[in-house]
Amino acid sequence: MPEIASPRGTRDILPADQAAYRWVLDTHSRVAELHAYRPVETPIIEATELFARAVGSDTDIVEKQMFTFDDRGGRSLTLRPEGTAGVTRAALAARLDQELRPLRLHYAGPMFRAERPQAGRQHQFTQLGIECIGERSASVDAEVVEIAWRFFAALGLHGVQLQVNSLGSPEDRARYREALVAYYEPLRDRLCDDCQRRLDTNPLRLLDCKRDAQFAESAPKIAASLSRESTEFFGRVLEILDTAAIPVTLNPRLVRGLDYYTDTVFEIWHETLSGAQNALGGGGRYDGLAALLGFAATPGCGYALGVERTIMVAKELGVAPGAAAGVDVLVASVDPPQAAAAARQARTLRDAGIRTMLDAGERRLDRKLRSADKAGARLAVVVGEDEVRDGNVTVRDLSQHSQQRVPEAELAALTLRILGMQQ
Ligand code: AMP
Questions:
Q1: Burial of 333 per CB tally in 10 Å (0-12, 13-18, 19+)
Q2: Does residue 88 surpass a pLDDT of 80?
Q3: CATH assignment of the domain containing 391
Q4: Which of 103, 199, 293, 320 has a CB 3.0–4.6 Å from the CB of 133, allowing a cystine?
């Protein structure tokens, strides 16, 4: 029978990759919590309607990238393609915004999009993000950008580039839409098939198109369609970022793929990522989202960052941690009759908080020691016939090839001392 492979576009996160994942996820939790954001988890499956309404039915995500299926009762469910819609639904359904405003939340977890798999683009990938729900202010927008910035700084990822733009209010956007249609309509026949369709459904997306980039160059800029209020709001965001010494690049063509954004939008790019996958993440303000989901109008602002792309860049820059050893000490019996005594020593060490691997199998001792060394153990505790008879154990330092015999009762204290751990 053929071996079963993992589904297309998915990857196993094997033990050797876990250190890098944990480093990214733990660093993000730490930075987010320093800014008083609290963790939240939402289901991986959601009603399809959530994304159809929130993300927008004429976006690439909803049109062609969702994993959607019917449950046994015929209800349409979707594997979440992004986190903001679910977190907003969860927070507002639980009325959390009435206890605390603004509500600051952070999350991490798997997301699913059926895009053509390639480097930095998978069907299942991991995002982490924050949402600040319940306040419309320039200071919140700047805080959200600053947290993303500080997160990459905490990882030591230099060369990160912040691209920002403002999409203004829904009215500004409608005005801009008209200006874009007026500009692109005479060019319709020269646009790619996707853009010809987008011209009718979602003209802002034309600015994203890599194939028609030459037309985007001279397309009208959104700044010209912004109201005074929107322009001032964006100006204040930029001013705060400037005070925080966070360098920004203004990018008038940045529109983001999702429909729910208003006002400030931003992306974080890195030069080592290329082409369509150059973004580490992005976000912005989404004041219209709550109402689209059927809740009272509630402003919000947040971002989502890709964990796999962050690790790719960190590896490229040499700042990602390597695989970590999963064991400190091997306890090995010499012959089968010492199996129970070896298991007892292992228990003593684990009770003292030492990561201990027990090898009481029938292999020869030198084989046991070799595999413990390969697994990264510092010490081996050897339990043979003599040791059991005398109430001793032999403690061998695998890196220095030295050994000593100690009474059983002293094993834990000695091991802790050699490993440099607190008693
Ligand atoms: P988006 O919600 O599309 O702005 O995505 C935010 C970030 O998530 C991107 O910048 C990527 O780092 C990551 N991301 C999005 N889609 C994928 C994917 N298919 N595979 C891997 N990472 C992704």
A1: buried
A2: yes
A3: 3.40.50.800
A4: 103
